[in-house]
């Protein structure tokens, strides 16, 4: 294979059979169970990287179970993990702290393109009679169980739309061949072309179990604040770099020309 052919074909690994196709990545009938809870402020602050900031007076975490039955290129899979409400220079958004899912394509694509902190596990989201149930198993062990009363009350759709349109932040890390960091960046992305099909709220509960390799319980549940069940179609937009840890001091200003991720 000629060098020019490599450059033209290089998109993702492996070169001749990438783990995922080029986007756009459209999701149909995406379903969320999001349980917001209060946690230990010191433990929360310890896992959120600067220049992102957390409101330690609230110390909130959103535990998410997401069912994705129809997604371009990625197929049919389920995801679960923790998103932390943060702000960057006054703009409110969410920082994805950890994600666990059961499909190689979006694990590879999520890590390589955006910097999603994804690992292989077995999450589920289903309705059992009158209860929406989310679970996360890492190997044979159950590490998270979330439940919510099924469609008890309609949620405020205007507030849900605002939340879905907020920026999302990721810490993208790719090592050099010598093991040192070659890329260490804070990435911002948005959900695009959102079609909100419905949203509901109700009573909820969340149980997290300690695990060495799926440490969701390191942000303990102190109080359940709210829960929401959402159905929507959306496109997962690509991102832009808003902070380069290898080029800037820890609390330095954002560069004048933010580098867009090229796809």
Shape: globular
- Relative helix content: 10-25%
Number of strands: 13
The profile of the biggest β sheet is:
7 strands, mixed, barrel
Kindly provide the radius of gyration, computed on alpha-carbon positions and rounded to a whole number of angstroms: 19 Å
Structure overview:
This protein is mainly β. The chain is built from 4 helices and 13 strands. The strands form 2 sheets. A 7-stranded mixed beta barrel has the order 1-2-3-4-10-11-13. A 4-stranded antiparallel β-sheet has the order 6-7-8-12, with no helix packed on it. Strand 2 (60-71) and strand 3 (75-88) form a beta hairpin. The two termini are 22 Å apart. The model is unreliable at 252-263 (pLDDT under 50).
Write a short abstract of this structure.
With 263 residues, the protein is mainly β. The protein is 13% helix and 52% strand. It is globular.
Main features:
263 residues; 13 strands; 13% helix; disordered C terminus
Secondary structure layout plus pairing:
Layout: H1 3-9, E1 25-38, H2 41-47, E2 60-71, E3 75-88, E4 91-101, H3 104-114, E5 118-120, E6 122-128, E7 131-138, E8 141-149, E9 153-154, H4 157-164, E10 168-175, E11 181-201, E12 204-208, E13 223-244
């Amino acid at each position: 294979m000629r060098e020019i052919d490599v450059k033209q074909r290089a998109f993702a690994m492996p070169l001749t059979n990438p783990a995922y196709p080029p986007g756009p990545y459209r999701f149909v009938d995406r379903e969320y169970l999001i349980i917001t809870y209060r946690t230990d402020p010191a433990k929360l602050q310890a896992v959120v990287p600067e220049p992102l900031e957390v409101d330690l007076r609230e110390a909130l975490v959103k535990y998410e179970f997401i069912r994705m039955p129809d997604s371009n290129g990625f197929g049919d899979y389920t995801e679960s993990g923790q998103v932390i409400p943060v702000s960057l220079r006054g703009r409110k958004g969410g920082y994805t702290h950890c994600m666990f899912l059961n499909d190689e394509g979006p694990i590879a694509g999520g890590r390589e393109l955006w910097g999603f902190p994804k690992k292989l596990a077995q999450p589920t989201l289903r309705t059992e009679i009158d209860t929406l149930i989310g679970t996360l198993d890492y190997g044979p062990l159950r590490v998270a169980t979330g439940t919510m009363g099924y469609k008890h009350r309609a949620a405020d759709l205007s507030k849900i739309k605002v939340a879905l349109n907020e920026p999302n932040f990721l810490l993208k890390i790719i090592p050099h061949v010598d093991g040192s960091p070659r890329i260490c960046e804070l990435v911002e992305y948005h959900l695009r072309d959102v079609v909100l099909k419905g949203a509901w709220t109700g009573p909820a509960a969340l149980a997290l179990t300690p695990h060495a390799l799926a440490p969701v319980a390191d942000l303990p549940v102190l109080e359940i604040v709210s829960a929401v069940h959402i159905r929507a179609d959306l496109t997962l937009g690509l991102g832009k770099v808003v902070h380069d840890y290898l080029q800037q001091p820890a609390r330095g200003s954002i560069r004048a020309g933010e580098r867009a991720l090229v796809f």
